[in-house]
Amino acid sequence: MHTTILVTGATGTVGREVVIQLSIIDGVRVRAGVHSIIKGENLKRLPDVEVCEMNFKDRDSLHAAFTHVDKVFLITPFSDDQVEMAKTLVDEAKKANVKHIVKLSVIGADTEPGLQLGRWHREVEQYIIDSGIAYTFLRPSSFMQNYSNFDASTIQKEGRFYHSTGNGKVSCIDVRDIAAAGVEALIGTGHEGKAYELTGPEALTNQEVAGIISEVTGRQVEFVDVPEDAAKSTMLQHHMPEWMVNAMLELERSYKENQFSETTDTVQQLTGRPPHSFRQFAEDYKECFV
Q1: Residue 39 has what pLDDT?
Q2: Do 12 and 60 fall into the same domain?
Q3: pLDDT tens digits, residue range 215-251?
Q4: Are 241 and 80 within 8 A, CB to CB?
Q5: Cα-atom radius of gyration of the chain, to the nearest Å?
Q6: Can you tell me the distance from the alpha carbon of 116 to that of 125, in angstroms, rounded to the nearest whole number?
Q7: Does residue 132 sit in the same domain as residue 248?
Q8: CA distance 16 to 45
Q9: What number is the average pLDDT over the span 182-195?
């Protein structure tokens, strides 16, 4: 008897890693929900992975994606209608009699009043609770992979990366550890009704991050602390929508104020091994920074 698990947002940073880790587990069939079949092409090479196109505004595509699904790893894109999208997916899950939703949330989602990013996730969490479907919420800190995804270009070209975080410390987490925790929540027992705050093993400033990348790559990398007004102006000039700019700057302000510097041992508890250190991440992703 196999279990079919749908991963929405399967080509994203966390979603792709969840699909990879689930694909090697006996008795699990993975349905990778993607916005574009072309982007999801490489996922088809993984064992027991079926790729399906999901248009969150097309009920027919969602019905097909949820057919015969037992569990869902729920990820929605960072967009202005992310709450509406997530609620639509929960509605489809309920229609399909899905047994368990593991939702990718964010650390501090239960904090009142909290950040705007947390409030969006908290609204969806409550909607899932109200649906009556068994749930597990994963609330990770900032991703280490954000450095390789978003800062690698300026690190390669200039030997610098830019944020408005001052000397604030953040307990970043490797997405491979988020995925491992998610896999345990999906296939393990006793995780229903739980919310897990996930962090890496240490809290670092961006100056310390720059130092580690410098040591690993053998080239000098510097962190440049950008005044918030200048950062906002630059993001708007690059045509980022204002709602996103405001949410990102609020998040960076919270980092600057050390609001997310605490660490947890939840990854160790869930997976039986310690989370990746930032130095290990930098070693594994070194090619992104040189």
Answers
A1: 82
A2: yes
A3: 999 999 999 999 999 999 999 999 999 999 999 999 9
A4: yes
A5: 19
A6: 14
A7: no
A8: 13
A9: 98
pLDDT for 40: 86
Q: How far apart are CA 207 and CA 59, in angstroms?
A: 47
Q: Are residues 116 and 209 in the same domain?
A: no
Dihedral sign from CA coordinates of 155, 158, 159, 164: negative
The letter for the amino acid at 137 is: F
Q: Is residue 46 part of a domain?
A: yes
Both structure tokens of 271: 């997976």
- Name the CA dihedral angle for 163, 164, 169, 172, rounded to a multiple of 10 degrees: -40
Burial level of 110, CB count in 10 A (0-12/13-18/19+)?
middle
109: domain range? 3-141+174-198
Please give the biggest Cα pair distance in the chain.
57
Same domain, 285 and 165: yes
The pair phi, psi for residue 194, each rounded to 5°, is: -105, 155
- Whole-angstrom distance between the N-terminal and C-terminal Cα of the chain? 47
The CATH number linked to 132 is 3.40.50.720
Structure tokens at 87: 């609620």
Question: pLDDT band at 114, cuts 50/70/90?
Answer: very high
User: Per-residue confidence at 26, pLDDT binned at 50, 70, 90?
Assistant: very high
If one counts the domains in the chain, the total is 2
Own/partner pairs, 20-25, CB within 8 angstroms, 24+ separation? 20/46, 20/179, 21/176, 21/179, 21/180, 21/183, 22/183, 22/186, 23/47, 23/48, 23/49, 25/183, 25/187
- Do residue 222 and residue 136 come from a single domain? no
